[in-house]
Each structure stands twice: as C-alpha cells, then as structure tokens.
Amino acid sequence: MRERRIQIGWAELGITVTAELDGRNPALADALWNALPYRSLQGHALVAGHHLFHVAPVHELLHLPAEQKVDRRAVPDGTVFCSRLQHLGIKYGELTEPMPATPVGRVLPADVDALAEAGRAVWDAVYSSKRHVFAEVSRLGEAGECRVPRLRAEDPTVDALIGKVHAETERVWTHPPEELVELHEGRIASRAGSYETVLTTLLFVNGETRPLGYCAYGGLVRAAADGMPLDCLRQMARILAATPAEFLGYCGLQTLHQFTEGALDAAARMERRTDFLALMSQMALYVNCLGGWNLQLFPWSVGGHLRREACPA
After folding, report:
1. For residue 256, which of 288, 297, 230, 304 has the smallest C-alpha distance?
2. 158 touches 279 (CB < 8 A)
3. How confident is the model over 123-175, as pLDDT tens digits?
4. N or C: which end of the chain has fewer CB within 10 A?
C-alpha cells in the first residue's frame, strides 16, 4: 500500500499536524484523498468530549460503505475518522460517547501534543470567544485551490437548482450566513420567540437544522444510493424535509426553506434516481454547512453556570 499522508492546519492558531491514511476503510479514505485540498469551519464536539470535527465537502461520505467500525472511546488519541454525517473528525483526548466510528488514519505520534493544543483552542473558539477557526486539509507537500464540489443532473431544471444551491453553499462556506447572523443577534422578522425570547428560538433552530442535514437529507442520499425506488424516495423526501424546513423558514432561514420547496417540487417530477441523488447530496452539504455555522454562532457560554455533577459509583 502506498503511503498517503495529509496535512491538517489551522492558520488562525499557527498549528499544523500530519496524519497518515492507514488503509482502514479504504473507500472513505479514497473519497477524502480525492477531494483534497479543502478549507472548512472547524468545530468541536459539545457533548462527546475531546473531539474535533468539521464538515468535509465530500459528497460520497454520505453513503459510502465502511468496512471497519470502532468504539471511539477506545482508540488512540490522534485517530482520524470520516463519518456519514459528512464529518472529518479527530480524537484528541477522552471521549464519553459510545458511538461506533469509522477510522481512516491517525495523526503522527510526534504531532499529538500539537493536536491537543489545537483542540483546546478550538473549544475556546466554539464555546466562548466565537473566533472563526478554519481547518485546511491537503495532501502533504501539495497545495491547490479550495472549492466546494458541484454535482450535475441530466434534467436541466434539476441541474439549475443544483447550481443555485451550490453557489449559495460556496458563498457561505467560510462566511457566516447573514440569515443566521441576524437570528443570533435577535433580529427576527417573524417575531419567533415567545415573550420576545431569542435563546429559545436559537435552540430550536439548532435542534432542527442538524437532523435535517444529518438524518433527512443524508438519509435520502443513502436510500437513493442503496436503490430505493424513486416513488418511495419522493414520498420520503416530503415526509422528512418539508415540516422542519418550513419551521426554519419561519425562524428566519428563508433561503433554506425556498431551496427545500424547490427540491421537493423537482423530486415530484424526476424520472432519474441519479438526478435525485445529486440534488439531495447538494442539499445535504448546504444544510450541513448551515449546521456548522449554527454551532459556531450559538451562545453556549450562557450556560456556563450549569456543570455536571459527579455520579455516585
């Protein structure tokens, strides 16, 4: 097996680490390798523990099969994962969530301390300072233009919609979407939020956006890739996506709502599963991008006084 090393850098932190793709889950590793280079907003786990993750602009991660799964808690620090949530994740310390994960490589031992330093800095950026930190991922020793990939459809109308979704995704990929900024600053045209509250609306928006990307659109992509009949895909698309998108539009994410309505209308007329797969994949990447920005902008530190109590042995 030829050696394949990737470089993961955070220019805002002045930290770079090198990881080796080690042959585990080769289909996922190949998809990641072929998508490089890219740049993405760096996130941090908010529940699971010492874990970095970001949305990887790799459509295939949504549906490619995994050959090996592990308990993230038990693997060495520095293990790199690709997931069906369209994430590239890296463990840098203790994890508590028993989630099966699909490893593709490992940060070199010499860089594990630097990785932990990056992890602590990203946690501060996500939880309190709200500083934007971006992961830059490339093949070791190579550089190139970082772009968001665009899929194609045979139907001209579907392809045009994919183009609009792609253009908006690329526009907000490294710049916070104005609609989310407005929402987080309390400017909500619909007046969503009982008794003028904002935090409640932010909480519900976060709680709807992530599963819309991870479960609804991601699930539709997997179902299409696995061969679900097109009639069933059409029905499931409206069942899974219409209501949450309508609610998010009411809360201020009108672009997402409009794209979803367009995607559902297009799906109702589609004759090719490949077109459905392309459109839902492009939508999944867009919604997952919004989800990443939601996590970055959300005022997590307002709950700083709430701390976990030690449980009796």
Report:
1. 288
2. yes
3. 999 999 999 999 999 999 998 788 899 999 999 999 999 999 999 999 999 99
4. C
CB-side exposure of 140: number of CA atoms within 13 Å?
A: 13
Q: Report phi then psi at 86, rounded to 5.
A: 70, 35
Give the CATH number of domain 4-139: 2.40.100.20
Helices within the chain (DSSP H only): 26-35, 112-124, 156-172, 178-184, 199-211, 218-225, 230-251, 254-269, 273-297
Instruction: Express each pLDDT in 27-37 by its tens digit.
Output: 999 999 999 99
Q: What angle do CA 132, 8, 21 make, to 5 degrees?
A: 145
Q: How far apart are CA 194 and CA 84, in angstroms?
A: 35
Tokens for 240? 């899974």
Long-range contacts of 177-182 (CB under 8 A, 24+ apart): 177/255, 177/290, 177/293, 179/252, 179/253, 179/254, 179/255, 180/252, 180/253, 180/290, 180/293, 180/294, 180/297, 181/297, 182/252
Residue 68 near residue 25 (C-beta atoms within 8 A): yes
Closest to 287 measured CA to CA, from 247, 255, 262? 255
Place of tokens 């139907």: 155
Residues in Cβ contact with 60 at an 8 Å cutoff, skipping those fewer than 6 apart: 27, 31
Altogether, the residues listed in the chain come to a count of 313
3-state secondary structure of 309: coil
pTM passes above 0.90: yes
pLDDT tens-digit map of 184-242: 999 999 999 999 999 999 999 999 999 999 999 999 999 999 999 999 999 999 999 99
